[in-house]
Design brief:
By secondary structure, the chain is α/β, with parallel strands linked by helices. The protein has two domains: 109 residues, HprK N-terminal domain-like (Udp-n-acetylmuramoylalanyl-d-glutamate--2,6- Diaminopimelate Ligase, Chain: A, domain 1); 134 residues, Beta-Lactamase, CATH 3.30.450.40. The chain contains nine helices and 13 strands. The strands form three sheets. Strands 9-8-12-11-10-13 form a six-stranded mixed beta sheet. Strand 6, helix 3 and strand 7 form a beta-alpha-beta unit. It is elongated, with a radius of gyration of 20 Å.
């Protein structure tokens, strides 16, 4: 049974279009149950994440206040006055002025609607991870759009510290997520189905990876990561074929900046 997702998980998934959390009076573990695009006067319900797409600035304040009165869990808005948002008594996410609302909706809905899953589905994902590992010769993890680790393949001593931390914590470490966002990896993943080649970073303890986004049509569902093992991963099989993630030709991510010199 699907139970929704926490504000924390949705914030992580929306790290591109969302510029920050303005206020969260109930904390980051508030549960979001549905995504609603609201115009002024539209009804919303308890647990909703309300996307204020029809108004911005001062015009968005009545929508925010109405959402709070109706028991909505959070609102996402562009350019509303900060003080008014803080006084509304509801969690408020600031959205970049150039962000597309359809992208915000798609990413948020993927997290909220995909947060519930039965045991058979998880077992299928572990089987998929192992199959991709066999095909590529690498160590595989499968993540959702909130960067939570859903499944992973068996691996040997060739794994790096990032893989260990991700599996133990069931989530990609925040410090590495920041680098991936800076390099534009997630922007490329959610925009299409190309394979992104991420260079090795010895200074971060991270080996080379290939990653592909998994989509249902234009809706992102998650990503498949292949860390190189004893040999380089095979790009054309990094997604386990088109049935797994719409695999294609690997394209390198922009080269990351060099590590700063030691003090």
């Amino acid at each position: 049974m699907k139970t929704g997702a926490t504000l924390r998980a949705v914030m992580t998934a929306l790290s591109g279009p969302v510029t920050g959390l303005v206020t969260a009076p109930g904390g980051l573990d508030v549960e979001l149950r549905a995504v609603v695009i609201a115009e002024p006067g539209d009804p919303v319900g308890p647990g909703d994440l309300v996307l204020v797409a029809g108004a911005r600035g001062e015009a968005a304040v009545p929508v925010i206040e109405a959402a709070a009165r109706c028991g909505a869990a959070a609102v996402a808005v562009k350019g509303a006055p900060v003080e008014a948002m803080r006084q509304a008594g509801i969690a408020v996410l600031g959205v970049a002025t150039d962000a597309r609302w359809d992208q915000v909706e798609t990413l948020a809905r993927a997290v909220i609607e995909g947060s519930g899953s039965d045991g058979d589905s998880h077992q299928d994902l572990f089987s998929l991870a192992q199959t991709v590992a066999t095909l590529t010769g690498g160590a595989v993890t499968i993540e959702d759009t909130a960067h939570r680790v859903l499944a992973y393949s068996e691996s040997d001593d060739e794994v790096d510290e990032l893989r260990r931390q991700s599996i133990l914590g069931r989530n990609c470490p925040e410090a590495y997520l920041a680098h991936l966002r800076e390099w534009g990896v997630y922007q490329r993943l959610w925009a299409g189905e190309e394979i992104v080649d991420i260079a090795e970073r010895p200074d971060l303890g991270v080996r080379r990876r290939l990653v592909v986004g998994v989509h249902a049509g234009s809706r992102p569902l998650g990503s498949i990561w292949v860390q190189e093992g004893r040999g380089a991963p095979r790009p054309r099989r990094a997604a386990g074929g088109r049935g797994a993630g719409g695999g294609g030709r690997a394209r390198p991510a922009p080269p990351p900046p060099p590590a700063p010199p030691p003090p």
